[in-house]
Request: fold
Amino acid sequence: MVDDEWVIYIVDEVRSWIDKLDDASHRRIVQALDALAQGGPGLGRPLVDTITGTSMSNLKELRPGSVRILFAFDPWRSSILLVGGDKRDRWQEWYHEAIPLAERRYILYLEERATQQEEGDRQ
Reply:
């Protein structure tokens, strides 16, 4: 890894979902994740877009093909993949389900990372 690349964390549910994808979708996601690690918050459309309808200003979506991965950049110069899915034929419905789930997972992630930081500071 190059020093200026962004670290990407993946919640277990997203990792499991990615592992079950067809080869073409899996390849597109790997390429998109490489671009995300290189570009960080500077990466924009068409691969990354901002999410509306959320209270999280840092909630974004990775857009490789018809699949979507909701993610956020965190205070530790990392990103966390929170929800993945294929919104084909479910454009609006998918977001109504995925955004609240991403928000909940991000809160849990922040709590876990803060605890890890505190434990590391004490050692």
